[in-house]
Structures
1.
Amino acid sequence: MTTLTGSCKCGNVRVALRGNPVRIGICHCTDCRQESGSAFTFFAVWPAAEFESQGETREFAGRRFCPNCGSRLFSANEDEAEIKLGILTEAPTPLAPTYELWIKRREKWLRPIEGAEQYLEDRT
Ligand SMILES: [Zn+2]
Ligand SMILES: [Zn+2]
């Protein structure tokens, strides 16, 4: 089974993900834009049991970040962990999005990802 690893910019927080994610997405919603400071987020969801993190994090509205360097990291509950894929060590990642959310907020100069399911807002 493959394990992917990642960390925040300063290295205080480290994550490990075992096996394949349940789903891989891109989100263009206003929350994702504001919290990332970018045009969209690229993330994947693993079962909570396949996710581990080390190091202190803080949380705002369920979204965890490093209190030292500010890197956005993950959201996790007892079932699932949603990881921001920009924190992975491997770049490019071996993962490609299978769906896109909130495409009504997608920048006009971005094209739909070929083969990815397209949702105007949240996944239905
Ligand atoms: Zn950090
Ligand atoms: Zn979003």
2.
Amino acid sequence: MFIELEPIFNNEGSCKEFEYEFVPEDCAEIAVARVKGSVKNQTGIVSLTAEVSFLIDALCDRCAAPVKEENTIDISHILVSQLNDSDNDNFFLIDSMHFNLDELIREDILLSLPTKILCRDDCKGLCPYCGANLNEKQCGCKKPVDPRLEALKKFLD
Ligand SMILES: [Zn+2]
Ligand SMILES: [Zn+2]
């Protein structure tokens, strides 16, 4: 969704609320994101706050079981139309008064995602030898011994 920021930047005390949903581009693991929030100008400072709920719909990185998980994050940024040296990371430099909110929210969602999506924290994954799902059963495969180590062992014996 695009928001016209010019009237907000130009009017102290103005506020625009928004509520909508969208499908973030190029992130396969997010099914849909729902956004509810506002952009406000308080004493010349323009801030954007929103609650974003999204559905992770992906496969476990270890065992490939489907993972469906509803997540909610709170986002908050101070929007600025130019950056000064003293500004910090909390400031978000807008590239246009015709502002693409989806792009900002998509980045916040991606930052909030874990590096690995797992069906559960202690997922045991698949056996690399027989492919058994180790969450469901112990397959009894033994880790093959490195032949070089085997030779060394014989030597030591
Ligand atoms: Zn798993
Ligand atoms: Zn196995």
